[in-house]
Amino acid sequence: MQVSVRFYAKAQELAGLSAALMEVSPPVTVADFRRLLSERFPRLSGMERSLALAVVERLPGETADPLDARPAMVVTDAYQFNGSEEVLVLPPVSGG
């Protein structure tokens, strides 16, 4: 299945692009997807555990629109992709 991925901030800088399509073989969990990210984008290797991954649910056949205001849901490593999600890759953040 193809998964649409969007990178933000430092993750975008290290990946070298803002968006990509990744081919994955189901079943795939977020933990699996983190490993696949570091394999496909070696510069993300080493920080994949600190990246936050969020998903936006899409309807079958619907394309991703960067201006779409659908809510994203941060997911845990146990979350299993169903093929209709767009994945947002967010770098670590700190607050104050």
Question: What features would you describe in this structure?
Answer:
By secondary structure, the chain is an alpha+beta fold. The chain has helices at 9-15, 30-40, and strands at 2-7, 19-23, 52-57, 73-74, 85-90. A five-stranded mixed sheet has the order 2-1-5-3-4. It is globular. The N and C termini lie far apart (40 Å). The mean pLDDT is 87.
Features:
2 helices; 5-stranded mixed sheet; 26% strand; alpha+beta; 96 residues
Question: What is the element layout, followed by pairings?
Answer:
Layout (H helix, E strand, L loop, with lengths): L1 E6 L1 H7 L3 E5 L6 H11 L11 E6 L15 E2 L10 E6 L6
Parallel strand pairs: 1-5
Antiparallel strand pairs: 1-2, 3-4, 3-5
Major beta sheet, specifics?
A: 5 strands, mixed
What's the number of extended β-strand segments? 5
Q: β content, as a range? A: 25-35%
- Are there runs of 5+ residues with pLDDT below 50, and where? none
Give the overall form.
Answer: globular
Helical content, roughly? 10-25%
User: How many helices does DSSP assign?
Assistant: 2
Give the strand line-up of the largest sheet: 2-1-5-3-4
Following the backbone from N to C, one meets helices and strands in this order, namely EHEHEEE
